[in-house]
Automatic annotation (TrEMBL):
Residues 49-136 form the D-glutamate N-acetyltransferase-like N-terminal domain. Residues 142-335 form the D-glutamate N-acetyltransferase-like C-terminal domain. SUPFAM superfamilies: P-loop containing nucleoside triphosphate hydrolases. It comes from Sphingomonas sanxanigenens DSM 19645 = NX02. PANTHER family: DUF1611 DOMAIN-CONTAINING PROTEIN, GLL3100 PROTEIN. This is EBNA-1 nuclear protein.
Length: 346
């Protein structure tokens, strides 16, 4: 039980730069991989492309696979994170076209690219690679619950696809700007593509979730921070198991609740109401105490992308007063975010 946890291999070599593929997506929340790469790794993205019916855009130049190849792209990244992680039928012709144009295909979906006969045949014919990101390392141990050295922050959410990754990345950037020893620990496909390594938590067999989180964030010096990207929600009827395993294995000293105030129901499961921020704080503390009795909430991250600057600030001010915690939108920054950072370190 007291054996040290193994260390995750943290390097991932992908053919860059990317052409981002948006599929036939009509809901921005399901294109979070494309948006994450466009926002946090813009220097590695040459443009975007989509299948018929797509209504979302990252704002990058619209380039066909052949145009992207001419612009220097080396791979097409499937920028969609849909329910079930499936490859849409309408995408296949586009993916084949991309390989014929000279691009490798990179996917973070649950479905394996090589399991689609048309893609496997095209890859063999063109000599292009099919690269699946959502592949956990071999020999993940079960969790031990052993208290590890170092400091850890976990982002948790009221729902999926509302800012857990962005919040962890923004906090990591703020910690680094202060000269702190800190790592961003990616737990999903987009974060792994941005960071160059990580653990695809939702592809891990459930018995090994906590062990995978322990591998992701091993023993570290006492002044080292791991900023751990959260997954799912403890209240999500489909994905709560991943969230709980990550919580127990991460053993966070502090956590930040991420919330989209424009939502009232769970994304993709509209029969279920969104939990309140207070409910998330309470349940995270009660469950998190199992592996870290000192766990505490240090603030709230609001996704105010649907609000004007004035409305967003008024909402955050009201929530600070109501909750008695720092409340900020990490993308907007400002004094509210600086206060959140200070409370993380306090």
């Amino acid at each position: 039980m007291n054996a040290p946890t193994g260390r995750l291999v943290e390097s991932l070599t992908l053919p860059q730069p990317y052409l981002l593929f948006l599929g036939d997506t009509t809901e921005a929340g399901f294109a979070k991989t494309a948006f994450g790469l466009a926002d946090w790794a813009p220097d590695r993205c040459v443009g975007e492309w989509a299948a018929a019916g797509c209504t979302v855009t990252t704002g990058l130049p619209l380039l066909s696979p052949a145009e992207a190849k001419a612009a220097g792209a080396r791979s097409l990244v499937i920028g969609v994170a849909n329910q079930g992680g499936v490859i849409g039928e309408s995408w296949i012709a586009v993916l084949v076209d991309a390989m014929e144009a000279g691009l490798d295909i990179v996917s973070g979906l649950h479905a394996r690219l090589g399991a689609v006969p048309a893609l496997a045949e095209a890859a063999k014919r063109t000599g292009r690679r099919l690269i699946d990101i959502r592949t956990p390392p071999a020999d993940i141990p079960v969790g031990t619950g052993r208290k590890r050295t170092g400091k850890r922050l976990l982002t948790v959410g009221t729902d999926c696809a509302l800012g857990k990754k962005y919040t962890a990345l923004a906090l990591h950037r703020a910690f680094a700007a202060r000269g702190l020893d800190a790592d961003f620990r990616a737990t999903g496909q987009t974060g792994i593509m941005i960071a160059g390594g990580g653990m695809p938590m939702d592809a891990v067999v459930s018995d090994f979730e906590a062990g995978a989180a322990e591998m992701l964030s091993p023993d570290a010096p006492d002044d080292h921070w791991d900023l751990i990207e959260g997954q799912g929600s403890l209240f999500n009827p489909a994905y709560a198991a991943v969230s709980l395993g990550l919580l127990h294995g991460s053993q966070p000293d502090v956590f930040v609740v991420c919330h989209d105030p424009s939502r009232s129901v769970i994304l993709g499961l509209e029969d279920f109401a969104l939990p309140s921020i207070e409910e998330v704080i309470d349940l995270t503390i009660r469950l998190g105490r199992r592996t870290n009795p000192a766990i505490r909430c240090v603030g709230v991250s609001l996704n105010t992308s649907r609000y004007s600057a004035e409305a967003a600030e008024a909402l955050m001010a009201a929530e600070r007063e109501r909750l008695g915690l720092p409340v900020a939108d990490p993308i907007r920054g400002g004094p509210g975010f600086a206060a959140l950072v200070e409370n993380c370190l306090g």
